Amino acid sequence: MVGGVYSKLKHAILFLMTKKAYFFLLALIIFVSAAGFLNFYKESYSAISNTPPGKVIKDYAWSSNIGWISLSSENNNDPFTYGVSVNFDENSPQYGWLSGYGWSPHVGWISFRTEDTAGCPQAPCQAKFEGGRMVGWAKAMQADNNGWDGWISFGGVTGQGTTYGPTLNGDSFTGYPWGHEVMGWIDFSFAHAAKGASTTATCAN
Q1: Is residue 203 part of a domain?
Q2: Which segment of 2-6, 75-79, 113-117, 146-150 scores lowest on mean pLDDT?
Q3: What is the CB neighbour count within 10 angstroms for residue 108?
């Protein structure tokens, strides 16, 4: 009789230990899952909050030869997302660099991307701000090289010795880049800079 009681007690203890182990394991799984989720959320939020500071260029530039050049797809609610942005992250080696695309119905996509402006007529090729003045190049991607290779100079010196190129004062632009005889002088005073993170622009050929 004593042996039977002992056996039942032993089974009861093992049963309770098994249940405790089950609940402990379940609690451990929930804890690990919650910790993983919180860590993922933290990393995601950190990635968002640490987006490099920059500005996006809004509105238009004007060429007396080919008309308006759109610098943002927000201008006409275009189906393709594009725009020109400036990296103003002081910790970035690409500080002051422009990127993205503008659009002209007459000459097509105008690229500020490093990959497209490599091989420009004269260094520096990268369109960027140096001391508030823009230097470098952009390129009209649909240029047929039949009298014009698509290059647009954002800084230089004219034959008369006058320095040219857009400058940025606060959020306002003044000055002109030069787009060969095809585009002529391009007035940037209609454009302005607005706070925003640099974005990846896409275009369709």
Answers
A1: no
A2: 2-6
A3: 17
Tell me the residue range of the domain where 89 lies.
Answer: 54-195
Residue 97, classified by CB atoms within 10 Å of its CB into exposed (0-12), middle (13-18) or buried (19+), is buried
- Cis, bond preceding 124 (omega within 30 deg of 0): yes
pLDDT recorded at residue 192: 92
User: How many domains are there within the chain?
Assistant: 2
123: tokens are 């260094």
Same domain, 76 and 132: yes
Total count of residues recorded for the chain: 205
Predicted TM-score (pTM) of the model is 0.69
**Whether 184 contacts 67, CB under 8 Å:** no
Shortest CA distance to 135 belongs to which of 126, 145, 143, 147? 126
Distance CA 181, CA 21 (A): 82
Residue 136 domain-assigned (yes or no): yes
Pair 45, 100 in one domain? no
> Is 137 within 8 Å of 151 (Cβ atoms)?
yes
Give the C-alpha separation, 205 to 196, whole Å: 26
What is Dmax (Cα atoms) for the chain? 118
Q: Are residues 91 and 185 in the same domain?
A: yes
